[in-house]
C-alpha cells in the first residue's frame, strides 16, 4: 500500500481519478491504547467493524487483548495474523460445523447463545462441556443508540434465567452478554443493562464466569459525544458490590477503535445549479455509513492541485455516481460555494463498517487504499 504524508500530498502527487480509502494507522494506535488503558477488563476488538489486515496488525501492536469474532472466516483471518490473542465467537447463531471448527481448529472456548437449540448443537457435537463457556445474550432496550440492535438477538428475563440454568445443568460454564446498540450516546444504558444482568444472575443462582458488555462506545463524529470515561464509570459503578463484580469483564469495541482511522476521498463529477453535487462514490460504495447513522460526518474539500478550500460555504445536496436515484445523502453538507468539477471531497470518520460494506454496484465504489500519516 502506498504511503503519503497527508491527503494534500496524495492529491498533489497522484491526482486520483477513483475514490480511495485513506487509512491513518496512528488513529488505530491512539484509540486502542486509550481503551485498553481505561477499561477495567478485557478489550476484544469487533473484527466485523473493519477487518483490514493492516488495521488488525496495528491493533496487535497497540496492545489489543482479544478478538470478538462473528464468523468462521473472521476466525481464520485473525488466526492468520496471530494466535496469541484469544477469540470469542459472539454471534448467537452458528452452524454446527462452525462451532466444531472454531473449537477443534482454533481452540475457541467461549460462545454466545440465546436459545436452547444453540446449546444443543454443542451437546450433539460431544465437545467437553466443562471446556466451554456459553454466554446468554440478553435483550436490552437499545435506547440512546444511533443504530439500534433490538429485535434480532437476545432473550428476556425469565427465558434468560431458564437458559442459564439449562446451560449450567449440562456442565457448561455460564456467562452473560448484551449489546446496547451501535454509537450509544447514553452511558446510563450500560448501567440499566448491567442491572438486568445482575438480576438474571441473582435469580439463576448459577456462577457467572464472564460478563461481556458488548460494544456501542461512541466515536466522535460531531464532537459532542460523551467521552469514554463516562461509560467506564457507569460500568464500574454498576458492578461494584454486585454478584457480578468478580466475573471476568469484557467489552467488544469496534467503532470506537476504527471509525477515525479512515477518510474516504472522492472527486466531484458534476455540480448542478439546483444545489446538487455528484461525486464518484456513494452509499453503495465506501460511504454507506453516511446514511446509516443519523449524524453529520466531518468533511474537507481540496482543489485538484491539493490546496485546501475553505470559506464561502453553502448547503449542498450530495449524490453518488450510480444510476440509482436513492444513491444520495439524507443530510445536506456545508461545502464551498465555489466547488467545481475536479475538486476533491474527503469524508472523515469512515473507518467503521463502510469499508466492510462497500460494494461494486453499477461498477462504482471505493476499492483502493492508501496510507496517510495525517489528514
From TrEMBL:
Q: What class of enzyme is it?
A: lyase
In its keyword annotation, does this UniProt entry include Lyase? yes
The signal peptide stretch is none
**InterPro entries annotated for this entry?**
Ala_racemase/Decarboxylase_C (IPR009006), De-COase2_N (IPR022644), De-COase2_pyr-phos_BS (IPR022653), Orn/DAP/Arg_de-COase (IPR000183), Orn_de-COase (IPR002433), PLP-binding_barrel (IPR029066)
Task: Give the EC number.
Answer: 4.1.1.17
* Pathway listed: Amine and polyamine biosynthesis; putrescine biosynthesis via L-ornithine pathway; putrescine from L-ornithine: step 1/1
Report keywords, A-Z: Lyase, Pyridoxal phosphate
Orn/DAP/Arg decarboxylase 2 N-terminal domain span: 27-259
What does UniProt list as catalytic?
323 (proton donor)
Family annotation (SUPFAM superfamilies): Alanine racemase C-terminal domain-like, PLP-binding barrel
* Cofactor(s) needed for function: pyridoxal 5'-phosphate
**GO CC, one annotated term:** cytoplasm
Q: Which one Pfam family would you cite for this protein?
A: Orn_Arg_deC_N
Give a GO molecular function annotation for the protein: ornithine decarboxylase activity
| The keyword Mitochondrion belongs to this UniProt entry's keyword annotation | no
Q: Which reaction does it catalyse?
A: L-ornithine + H(+) = putrescine + CO2
Q: In this chain, where does the modification N6-(pyridoxal phosphate)lysine occur?
A: 48
Q: Which GO terms describe its biological process?
A: putrescine biosynthetic process from arginine, via ornithine
Q: Which domain of life is it from?
A: Bacteria
Q: Which family does it belong to?
A: Belongs to the Orn/Lys/Arg decarboxylase class-II family.
| Matches recorded under PANTHER family | ARGININE/DIAMINOPIMELATE/ORNITHINE DECARBOXYLASE, ORNITHINE DECARBOXYLASE 1-RELATED
What's the protein name? ornithine decarboxylase
Q: Which organism is it from?
A: Aquipseudomonas alcaligenes (strain ATCC 14909 / DSM 50342 / CCUG 1425 / JCM 20561 / NBRC 14159 / NCIMB 9945 / NCTC 10367 / 1577)
As recorded in Swiss-Prot or TrEMBL, the protein's gene is named: speC
Amino acid at each position: 500500500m502506498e504511503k503519503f504524508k497527508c491527503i494534500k500530498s496524495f492529491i498533489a502527487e497522484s491526482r486520483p481519478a477513483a475514490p480511495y480509502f485513506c487509512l491513518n494507522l496512528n488513529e488505530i494506535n491512539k484509540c486502542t491504547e486509550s481503551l485498553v488503558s481505561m477499561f477495567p477488563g478485557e478489550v476484544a476488538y469487533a473484527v466485523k467493524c473493519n477487518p483490514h489486515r493492516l488495521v488488525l496488525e496495528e491493533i496487535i501492536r497497540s496492545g489489543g487483548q482479544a478478538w470478538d469474532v462473528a464468523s468462521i472466516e473472521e476466525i481464520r483471518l485473525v488466526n492468520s495474523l496471530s494466535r496469541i490473542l484469544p477469540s470469542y465467537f459472539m454471534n448467537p447463531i452458528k452452524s454446527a460445523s462452525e462451532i466444531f471448527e472454531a473449537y477443534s481448529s482454533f481452540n475457541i472456548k467461549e460462545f454466545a447463545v440465546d436459545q436452547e437449540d444453540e446449546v444443543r448443537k454443542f451437546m450433539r457435537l460431544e465437545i467437553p462441556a466443562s471446556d466451554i463457556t456459553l454466554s446468554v445474550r440478553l435483550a436490552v432496550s437499545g435506547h440512546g443508540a444511533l443504530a439500534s440492535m433490538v429485535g434480532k438477538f437476545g432473550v428476556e428475563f425469565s427465558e434468560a434465567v431458564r437458559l442459564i440454568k439449562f446451560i449450567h445443568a449440562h456442565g457448561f460454564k455460564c456467562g452473560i452478554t448484551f449489546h446496547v446498540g451501535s454509537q450509544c450516546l447514553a452511558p446510563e444504558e450500560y448501567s440499566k443493562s448491567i442491572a438486568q444482568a445482575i438480576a438474571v444472575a441473582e435469580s439463576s443462582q448459577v456462577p457467572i464466569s464472564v460478563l461481556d458488555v458488548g460494544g456501542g462506545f461512541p466515536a466522535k463524529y460531531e464532537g459532542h459525544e460523551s467521552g469514554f470515561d463516562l461509560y467506564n464509570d457507569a460500568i464500574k459503578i454498576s458492578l461494584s458490590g454486585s454478584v457480578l463484580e468478580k466475573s471476568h469483564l469484557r467489552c467488544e469495541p469496534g467503532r470506537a477503535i476504527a471509525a477515525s482511522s479512515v477518510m474516504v476521498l472522492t472527486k466531484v463529477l458534476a455540480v448542478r445549479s439546483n444545489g446538487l453535487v455528484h461525486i464518484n462514490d456513494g452509499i453503495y460504495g465506501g460511504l454507506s455509513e453516511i446514511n446509516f447513522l443519523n449524524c453529520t460526518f466531518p468533511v474537507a474539500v481540496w482543489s485538484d492541485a491539493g490546496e485546501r478550500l475553505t470559506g464561502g460555504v453553502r448547503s449542498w445536496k450530495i449524490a453518488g455516481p450510480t444510476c440509482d436515484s436513492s444513491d444520495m445523502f439524507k443530510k445536506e453538507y456545508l461545502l464551498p460555494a465555489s466547488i467545481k468539477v475536479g475538486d476533491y471531497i474527503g469524508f472523515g470518520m469512515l473507518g467503521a463498517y463502510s469499508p466492510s460494506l462497500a460494494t461494486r454496484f453499477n461498477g462504482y465504489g471505493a476499492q483502493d487504499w492508501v496510507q496517510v500519516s495525517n489528514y
